[in-house]
Amino acid sequence: MANHNARNTDDFEPKKITQHGQINFRREDNLLIIDATGPFSEGIVEAIAGVQFGLVSELASQGPWGDVIIFHKNATVPAQVMATFQHYLSVLVNNKVAACFTALVLPPDVVGSKSMQASLLQAYTSNGLTVSAFDQEDAAFDWVRAQLALTADQAI
Fold first, then answer.
1. pLDDT of amino acid 147
2. In sequence order, what are the residues at sequence separation of 6 or more whose Cβ sits closer than 8 angstroms to the Cβ of residue 49?
3. Which of 20, 86, 22, 81 is nearest to 51 (CA)?
4. Which of 106, 111, 119, 135 has the most CB atoms at less than 10 Å from its CB?
5. DSSP assignment, residue 74?
6. Do 7 and 25 contact (CB within 8 A), yes or no?
7. What is the rounded radius of gyration, in angstroms, for the C-alpha atoms of the chain?
8. What is the reported pLDDT for 154?
9. Composition of the chain by helix, strand, coil, percent to 5
10. DSSP secondary structure code for residue 78 in this structure
11. Per-residue pLDDT of the chain (156 residues; tens, 9 = 90+)
């Protein structure tokens, strides 16, 4: 698999924005793999938008794509940050660059994994996005790849 455009929210300018949490993005073919280490604060959503938008725009221009978001250490997202993130997802949808399929990986040893799952799923589904949650990476990757394969089969 080709790995393109590895990016990180620490690269976001302006640096004056205080963010709590870190997001690493890497692209492998039609997948965007996102490693998210929380807890997360308000500044993280602006950093995500600043770093991610170009990647998703490029992916969307090349056909159906999916993302796998893997949470590490802490998945806690305060309500205001979740509302801001939900709005960011609506921007992606309105610009027709949102992932066709999103898998959330919330391992049991990640703080807030169980308590945040419903809110995270709601942020996606309220924007009409297809999302599923998993506690293991392999299952998440298998699901996204299967969904993308079905999409490709239906296009034939």
1. 97
2. 88, 91
3. 22
4. 106
5. B
6. yes
7. 15
8. 75
9. 45, 25, 30
10. -
11. 444 565 454 554 444 444 578 889 999 999 999 999 999 988 888 888 888 888 899 999 999 999 999 999 999 999 999 999 999 999 999 999 999 999 999 999 999 999 999 999 999 999 999 999 999 999 999 999 999 999 977 765
Q: 110 is written with which tokens?
A: 């990640």
Listing DSSP states for 104-154 in one string gives EE--TTSBTHHHHHHHHHHHHHTTT-EEEEESSHHHHHHHHHHHHHHHHHH
Given this model, what pLDDT does residue 44 score? 85
Query: Environment class of residue 107 by beta-carbon count within 10 Å: exposed (0-12), middle (13-18) or buried (19+)?
Result: middle
pLDDT of residue 149: 95
d(C-alpha 129, C-alpha 99), whole Å: 8
Q: What is the distance between the alpha carbons of residues 107 and 62, in angstroms, rounded to a whole number?
A: 31
Structure tokens at 142: 């298998």
Going from the N-terminus, what domains does the chain have, and what CATH number goes with each?
Answer: 3-155 (3.40.50)
Distance of alpha carbon 56 from alpha carbon 27, whole angstroms: 10
Question: Nearest-CA neighbor of 77 among 118, 109, 107?
Answer: 118
Confirm if 119 and 82 have CB atoms less than 8 A apart. yes
Q: Which amino acid would we find at residue 143? A: W
Beta partners for residue 128, in sequence order: none
pTM for the model: 0.87
